[in-house]
Amino acid sequence: MSYDEMYSYLEARVDALKTNRTGDERQTVDEVFDKQTLMTLYDMMVGGVIDSVRFPISTGKEGNVFYATDGDGDPVALKIFRTSTATFKHIGKYIEGDPRFKGLTGNRRKMIYAWTNKEFRNLQRYYDAGIPVPEPVSYGKNCLVMEFIGDETGPAPQLKDVILDDPTDTYDEVISFIIDGWQDAHLVHGDMSEYNILMMDGEPILIDCGQAMTADHFNSKELLIRDINNVNRFFRNRGADVINADIIMKEALEGKKDDDEDDDDEDDEYDDDDEYDGEDDVTDDDEVNTV
C-alpha cells in the first residue's frame, strides 16, 4: 500500500485528519500526526488495537491524548507523544539514571520511543501492584493505548476540579498511591499532584506516569518527598487531616512489617527482561506491542 493510500485509509478513521482544516489548526494536526506517527497508527488499526480516533481529550507537556475506539467499538485513550525538540528536552532528565534504560543514547526520536516504552512499563507496574491507573493496552513507537477513564459524557475530571465529599478519605487513598507505589511497584511517580489524578465515581486514579522512576534511581528519595509535599499541600487546602510528611516518608521507606527478607532483597532488583535496549522500537517495521 502506498503512503497516499494509507493516508486515505487513516483519514476516514482519524477525525483530526479530515481536510476541512486550515491555518493554525492544520499546523497543530501536522505536528502531532507526522508521517511516522501515521504509519504507527496504521499498524495499530490493521492489527486491531484501535479502529478510529475521534477527538482530543487533553494536551500535556509531552503529548496529546485522544478518545479512540478499539476493534469492538469500546473507548480507549490514545496518547501520542510529540517528537519535537521541546518534548525531547523535557523528557531527557527522566530517562537518564533509570536502570531500565541504562546506556540508552541516540537521536531525539529514539529517546521519545523510549519514553513511550517507559510510560507503558510504569503503568504496567502500577497496575500489577493494584494501584488505580489506566490499564495499559498497547504501544508502538510514540503511540500508547490505554484504558479510557471516563464515561459517555467525556473524560473523568482532574482532582483539582472536583468538590470532595470527604477530603480526608480521598487524601488517604492518594497517600496509599505513594506508599504502595514505592513498596509494591518499586516506583516513585515524581510529578504527583491534583493535575495528574482523575476522579472517577468518587475514586482517585493516577495518570501521567511516564516520568515515574524506579526506587533505586539516584534521585528517587527527593522525588518521593516532593510527591508527598505536593499531595499534602493540596489536601491541606481542601481541609483534609494531613499526615506529617516525615511519617509518610518513613512508612514508605521502611516497607510492610510482614515483608520477609526475600521480598526486601528484591525491592531494588529488576529482571533483564525489564530493561530496554532501544533497538526494537526504532525500526520502520516494528510490530505493535500488546499486553
Brief description of this entry?
Helix content is 39%, strand content 17%.
Summarize the structure in words.
Helix 6 packs antiparallel against helix 7 (220-237). By secondary structure, the protein is an alpha+beta fold. Strand 6 and strand 7 form a beta hairpin. The protein is globular and about 60 Å long. Helix content is 39%, strand content 17%. It has 9 helices and 12 strands. Mean pLDDT is 84; it is low at 259-273 and 279-287.
Would you tell me the structural class of the helices and strands? Answer: alpha+beta
Largest sheet: 6 strands, antiparallel
Oligomer: single chain
The overall pLDDT, averaged over residues, is: 84
Number of discrete helical segments? 9
Q: Which word captures the global form?
A: globular
Fraction of helical residues:
25-40%
Strand line-up of the largest beta sheet = 1-2-3-5-4-12
Count of individual beta strands: 12
